[in-house]
Fold this protein.
Amino acid sequence: MADLPDVPVHPQATRRLVMRFDKNGNPVFDSVLSPESFAPRALCILPKRHAIPVIFVPGIMGSNLRATAKYDAKQPPAWRPPNGTAEGIGEWFYRCRQDAAARQRQLTPEHCEVDPTGPIELSDSTYTLDESEARRRGWGELHWESYGEILLTLEKVLNDQYESSPDGQPSRLMPVWELAKTLRYPAGQKDKDGNPLPTDALKRWNKVAGGDCPPLTDDEIARLDDYYYPVWACGYNWLESNADSAKRLVQRIQDVLKHYNHPDCQFIPEGRVILVTHSMGGLVARRAAQLAEKDILGVVHGVQPVGGAPVVYRRFRAGTETKGPSDVLGAFAAEVLGWSAADITCVMANSPGPLELLPNKHYPAGWLRFERHSGELRETLMPPLPTPGGDPYEQIYSVRVQDKWWGMVDEKLIDPAGLIEKTKITAFSSYANALKEVQRFHEKNLGLYFHPRTYAYFGSDKDQVSYGAVLWVTQDRLLPDIRDKLIDQKAKSWEDSGSAVLGEGANGIRMCLIRAEAPRDSDGENAGDVTVPRASGELVKGDKDFVKCVFKMKGFDHQHSYSNAEVQHAASYCIGRIVISAKPVRELPQMKGNSCLESSPSCSLGFSQ
């Protein structure tokens, strides 16, 4: 692109044009000529020359998947979460007709790859890229309903930091950056219950760990405006190990930096990217940071299951949880995700990625419990598992339902399609091998490592009930011959909706997995964000020398946490603090190839249409 001078905007340049990009990644604006009597002019706003790419990494099931060409490219999308009610109903009917064998064949890790062709719906106020550029940046790899809003928000607030006046000139900071400068909300705001909210942003976001988090100064805001922040995305095959997904993310980081380093691209990269993650994407990003720390300026983690989630065990025995008989939307989601243990086990037992969400050794012990409830009476029937200092992989995850009534895995549900049978090993041996890979990832690879410049938030809300623990409960009275050996009892029968019968005849008792009970307050065991309980999320606190700031927040559910306005404010502020650590533009090259355009304020040009 030819160098353009910093020229004033034509006073009648009021119609802003969408910026698109050529094959080399250079900005292009399209318009048409019109008579001079047509007063409005086209307004073209060029981004800054120096760039810090931002890469968003989604959570589990947040990446679109398709069948590989080797498997059968003519198959329908392996995983395309619905966008909107109509698609949701269609997906529900499709999954209702799909048996476990078909689900296993479709969602076997080796049969799937990331699908970049998902829908992208840009808003009327999106001026910094078009759909073609968004697709080049990987936006089509992500579930749009879950992540479209945060992608658009980051693209706007990072690259349109100032609200423009009618003549196109910057007039004042956007509200999100005014908030970052003061860390004060307007007085008089109230929560959903009508209670006054604090004006102090750090109190509202509930800062619980890290060092000082001061407001951004005028100089720091000015530095923020020195860079262009193209927002990218990186989907991944969430059925594979997060270690494999991390390698894909490292490759995406390198490809993005290479894209802006290309001599035919006018942009000059700072040399590092910023990662923003959701849920399991945090595990992917942390492993990627271990492999390519020097290429990452900083990381913002959202609702990361650092210690795993006990609900994974429950899904192996009972399928996807709902809030009860009246939870129609939950029932629809459960049908899509896997209504029963049969629907869940055929996929998760063969997929390292989902298995890596099992509670690891950092999660508090004793989360699997066994009780008798009779009126107000609650009686512990056997010691909770895993025991303090015990190995959950040995004590819980490798135990078959066929061997102990509370075992996690029903061996007969692992391979309904007979895919493992063809490899000459048993289904359970295949599962055991995957479990070893999971343990190696948890303990040998990831541990509690965090990038040296990490910011994070997690959910701890009593109204977003999560499974901080999983409870087997009976109302039956246990006779001594069963109770004394309860931990080693085999089940007479069991159902894939979460129940087991022990003993014979009149001595038989029925054990059932119950729904998580609502906690009394937002520090309760079952407080969280519906999916990740507080005890797992707060492990992101880590070492204060590495984790710069952690917010313990409420008011959102797991999937839609980035749609929460305060989360968006906090995430933007954290990105601003990360940018402060970037190299000053004056220390970076000012020329590239045959270009000699010096770093200067954004160039705004007005052309006749």
